[in-house]
Specification:
Distance between the termini: 70 Å
Structural class: mainly alpha
Strand content: under 5%
Helix content: over 70%
Order of helices and strands: HHH
Number of strands: 0
């Protein structure tokens, strides 16, 4: 019964990650994202995986932990890709503003 409940929890949590990855990819933005939150979730999934490995409970629930970890890790990578993109855009705007003030066209 405990494994069934854990599986339901992982499935429910896991349903949100593909949506989050899709939104991060499509928007190209870090708005609404927290790198601290994402890393905390990754650490939690790693702890869950370690717990399964240490206890020897190598079941389908372990696969759900791994799948969720992969999805959250992809979201983390997209966070840094999008953040770098946002910084480049902001630097371009700052350069454009400074050129405008300097009279450069």
């Amino acid at each position: 019964m405990q494994e069934c409940c854990e599986m339901i929890m992982l499935i429910c949590f896991g349903l949100s990650w593909p949506i989050s990855v899709y939104k991060s990819f499509r928007s190209g933005s870090t708005k609404g994202k927290s790198v601290v939150f994402i890393v905390a979730i990754i650490v939690g999934y790693i702890a869950g995986i370690a717990g399964k490995l240490v206890s020897g409970q190598l079941t389908y629930v372990l696969a759900l932990y791994v799948l969720n970890l992969v999805m959250v890790s992809i979201d983390l990578v997209l966070y840094f890709v999008n953040r770098r993109r946002e910084k480049r855009i902001e630097q371009g705007k700052a350069l454009e503003r400074s050129n405008r003030y300097a009279g450069v066209r």
